[in-house]
Write a structure and sequence with these properties.
- This is BioF2-like acetyltransferase domain-containing protein.
- There is one protein chain.
- The protein is globular and about 60 Å long.
- It folds into two domains: 2-161 and 319-354, no CATH class; 165-316, Aminopeptidase.
- The chain is α+β, with helices and mostly antiparallel strands.
- The chain has 13 helices and eleven strands.
- It has helices spanning 2-12, 14-17, 52-64, 73-87, 116-126, 139-151, 168-174, 176-187, 200-218, 227-235, 281-295, 307-311, 331-354, and strands spanning 24-30, 33-41, 94-98, 131-137, 155-165, 191-194, 240-245, 251-260, 263-271, 299-301, 316-325.
Length: 357
């Protein structure tokens, strides 16, 4: 799967698959595992999947417009502006991401933590002027790797709170909201389909529904997946597209399941936001993913956002981190990153936890 995925990006260019992304894609060998790797050389970025600047500066500024404590917002804007001013000296987006699937959540194969030191040495020799990074790490699922990264001089920065369910089948029988979702599922007039064939109209519809939710409703800084991405990821078996169609055969909601090594996430999801919420399209699309995870006994990473909704369905909050290695860089680039680390841990992480962001 890694070879098929990276080959498509190398052959066709990143913007063919993610409209607002410019990156160089390669394969990195970590022991017995091949991992997708992205390489950026400091150019301005438009989405966070390869850009910590977008993730920690641009996206944070957008999120502050929705921050629940309005009294804190002016002070937090000032903090973000101050950090941004310092980070301009870090060349933050001159960066190499290891295991970057270019989605909101990167599932990680069972790589050997014992290779961290040698891998770090190899990567810094190959990319002496680039920051090294690895996204989507949690202590619950990656504790040995995180410990090895920290021992090798990598630095953890909190990125967001994610919501994890390790026992989906059990939660399906216990949680009141999941039982209600199942009743909605059984009574809906929409027809469920786990797509075996991806037609161009279906790929276009899936990309459009994703855009309605993640770009139009949430943020243009999210990755803008194209119909070509939908078609390619379906063809190589990377994402299972679970859709619900109306009586005319039109897809009205979907969940895109990405899973391996016993873990699953829903990196693409969408629904027709023009239909009355009482129809429950968001619940149905999400429930398609929960049912899939339960059926295959997969731990489910529900990603971030909609915290009350996910907690009511058995998820528990877990801080997600990105690991960065920059010890090989000159002091003028390291010091701004130390400032970011201090602010992220002392201000960002407590706020993420308190407000369940």
């Amino acid at each position: 799967m890694v070879e098929d995925f990276t080959s498509a990006f190398m052959r066709d260019g990143s913007s063919t698959y993610i409209r607002n992304l410019q990156t160089q894609v390669d394969v990195h060998r970590w022991g017995e595992q091949d991992l997708p790797m992205t390489i950026n050389h400091g150019n301005k970025a438009a989405t966070f999947v390869c850009s910590p600047w977008v993730g920690y500066v641009d996206y944070t500024r957008e999120e502050l417009s929705r921050f629940p404590n309005r009294a804190l917002t002016p002070a937090l804007h000032a903090v973000v502006s101050g950090v941004a001013g310092v980070l301009r000296f870090s060349d933050l987006d001159r960066i190499v991401h290891i295991n970057n699937w270019m989605m909101s959540t990167n599932l990680l194969a069972a790589i050997d933590p014992g290779l961290v030191a040698s891998q770090t040495e190899e990567l810094t020799a190959r990319f002496p002027s680039h920051i090294l990074a690895m996204r989507s790490l949690t202590w619950r699922h990656n504790s040995r790797l995180i410990g090895a990264l920290e021992a090798a001089g990598w630095v953890l920065l909190p990125s967001r709170q994610v919501f994890l369910v390790d026992d989906v089948p059990s939660q399906m029988t216990r949680r009141r909201d999941l039982k209600r979702d199942e009743r909605l599922w059984q009574n809906t007039s929409l027809r469920y389909e786990d797509l075996q064939t991806m037609t161009l109209p279906d790929a276009e519809r899936i990309a459009a529904l994703y855009a309605m939710l993640y770009l139009d409703k949430y943020s243009q800084l999210n990755p803008s997946f194209t119909p070509a991405f939908v078609t390619m990821t379906h063809a190589i078996g990377m994402i299972r597209y679970l859709v619900l169609r109306d009586a005319d055969g039109i897809i009205q909601c979907f969940g895109g399941m990405h899973h391996f090594a016993g873990h699953a996430t829903i990196p693409l999801m969408g629904y027709n936001t023009g239909i009355d919420q009482r129809v429950g399209l968001y619940r149905l699309g999400f429930h398609a993913g929960s049912r899939f995870a339960a059926r295959h006994n997969l731990a489910l990473n529900m990603s971030s956002g909609a915290s009350s909704f996910k907690i009511a369905r058995g998820a528990t909050a877990e801080m997600e981190f990105s690991a960065f290695h920059f010890r090989h860089l000159p002091a003028r680039r390291r010091l701004p990153l130390d400032v970011l680390r201090t602010v992220a841990h002392r201000i960002g992480m407590p706020l993420l936890r308190r407000y369940k962001l």
